[in-house]
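Look over this today:
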Amino acid sequence: MTLGKSSISRRRFIKSAAAAGAASLAMPAIVRAQPSHYIIGASLPMTGPFATAGQLIAPSLKMFEAFTNQAGGIGGVPIKVAVEDSGYVAQNALANYQRLLASEGDAVIGYFGDSTGFMKLVAPELKGEQARLMSSTSFASELANPETNPYQFMAGPTYEDQFDILLQNIAAEGGKSVAFIHSNTEFGLDPIEFGKKRAAELGIEVKLIEATKPQGADVATHVTKLAQADAEYCILQGYVTGVWPQLIGGARQFGLPTKFMGTFWGMEKLIADRVTAEAGPFLDGYQGVMPYRYFYDSEDAPRYQQMAAFSKEHFAGTPLENYMPTWGLQAMLSLDLLALTLAKTAEAGKELTADNAAAMLSEIKDHDTGGFFGPNATIKNNKIGIGRVYQYSAESKLFTPTSDWLEV
């Protein structure tokens, strides 16, 4: 749920729907025979290589549950968010999804997945009664296709879009050469071919394309190759915690002047702050793409203000008391958009089926997200192509914008 104009209309709908549902013979069966609650399932890497992300995302999903139920639920029905551990193994996430459908059936109205791998693995399963509208942690470029993935959407720009924004920024600064260093995962490989083509269009030479392990990478070897390539800029892709700061730190120890940039998963303030506290200010000047405002940028962002009040009450004494991680913001907005879509589907008097929800999703235009983005958001090709470049300051411990909001 979002605040502002959109939330007011939805609250009014929830109240009116609850009053009118029993009397309206025209309402579909799924609304007339309301269950005691709806379920939105989620698989998160609570263990495994990306456990840090999963453990920081999980509280935002429970926050979403509380906010939604305070506002009346969806179509007058309260919700429950059911989170299970995937260990960042796509087969585990798929098993979680299948098990939830088997046990809860029609009460399950949406899902949040943990990876590109899961979203690709589950896609063939999304047929008939097994289909649900779903989002995930992934910004995989191939998911932004309503024809092949009609029930899957992302609350932001694809990885290709994010590379586009970064390369445009490099070109605007007069940069002439770049290196791409990425994890040897599907997540890491996603935008690399696009990046090569886009760099060529912008007159930027790609001097190095280097793959690493997502954890435990041989940093010295990769930094040596970067030094030999002598690129002005280096874009890091496909990392969450350990490797991207290590690569930057290794390059600084080697004396490289390379300007480092990252995509969404390398833009978490908590990680940058921890690295700075433990190893010094070598991340100063690091830049990257963020689709959203950071949580501390709450002026004219009523949704952030609501989240801040909740965090102070329920997360006192933890890192979440005064700050919501970027990863949590992405998950929260994903479920906000899912709930908005389902509420609009019910408001139109339609069953909460995946097909009806997918059709309604495509109609979300110029939507006030309550502060997540700078401009209002439009879903096109099951994504929101908005982002801007931020830069980290080791002194202030803040990421601040260095570009306008860009739409791609």
